[in-house]
Specification:
Distance between the termini: 16 Å
Order of helices and strands: EEHHHHEHEHEHEHEHEH
Radius of gyration: 17 Å
Structural class: alpha/beta
Shape: globular
Helix content: 40-55%
Number of helices: 10
Length: 223
């Protein structure tokens, strides 16, 4: 089994930082702030549609400048690892299984952040994007999976990969790739939005347990 973690909203508990950064941007534009409940009920990828939903008129904005504005505001705010992250990572390590990170965050920022929070040493690969666009990570995920197969840590059919993320988009990517998925309720999407899609965990360690169950079930059915 190879566990593929999402970063923002999954291993990194940064939802409040995301909302605060967005509200700073909305205030500059004379727009109403959003609440945690609204964010978790409506946030989605690609993020352009979400910006429109909260009142930011993208026709009046330079998207690259807007993305930089958001990330500057976001990185000025505190974030922390999700409760139980190290217990989860240690559990995977103790089982002798592999783990990596797949994120839509730009690679340089992802590399810096995962090192800063002390999780980089647990990972086989830390795979980010080449932009701040906030779009789909499906094509990046395809390249990432090919790299895992080339590295010899994943099977050609990807049957030993389990993705763990906090967003509907993580499930969409997993479904498109044909890999197993566990969703995490402590991030940017409400539990109610995730429950119809895949097994839902409330902590990273619980997510590992569900991933093991999915993998074991698949292994038994394949025999």
């Amino acid at each position: 089994m190879h566990i593929v973690w999402d970063w923002n909203g999954t291993l990194l508990d940064d939802t409040e930082a995301c909302i605060d950064a967005l509200n700073e941007m909305l205030a500059k534009r004379g727009l109403e702030p959003i609440t945690l409940d609204f964010y978790r009920r409506h946030f989605a990828f690609p993020v352009r549609s979400f910006y429109e939903r909260i009142g930011v008129k993208l026709a009046n904005e330079d998207w690259d400048r807007l993305a930089r504005e958001y990330h500057d505001a976001y990185h000025a705010r505190p974030a922390r690892l999700a409760r139980g992250t190290f217990a989860a990572l240690e559990r995977v390590k103790a089982m002798g299984e592999g783990q990596s990170i797949l994120s839509a965050l730009r690679q340089d920022m992802l590399t810096t952040d995962t090192a800063k929070f002390g999780v980089a040493g647990y990972m086989h690969r830390i795979w980010g994007s080449d932009n701040l666009d906030g779009g789909s990570k499906l094509e990046s995920a395809r390249r990432f999976c090919r790299a895992l197969v080339s590295d010899g840590v994943a099977r050609e059919d990807l049957s030993d990969i389990v993705m763990i993320g906090d967003a509907i988009h993580d499930w969409e990517v997993a479904s498109a790739l044909g890999v197993k998925c566990v969703l995490f309720s402590g991030g940017g999407h409400s539990r109610e939005r995730l429950l119809p899609l895949a097994p839902v965990a409330d902590t990273p360690e619980e997510a590992v347990g569900l991933a093991c169950a999915l993998f074991s079930s698949h292994s038994r059915s394949a025999k």
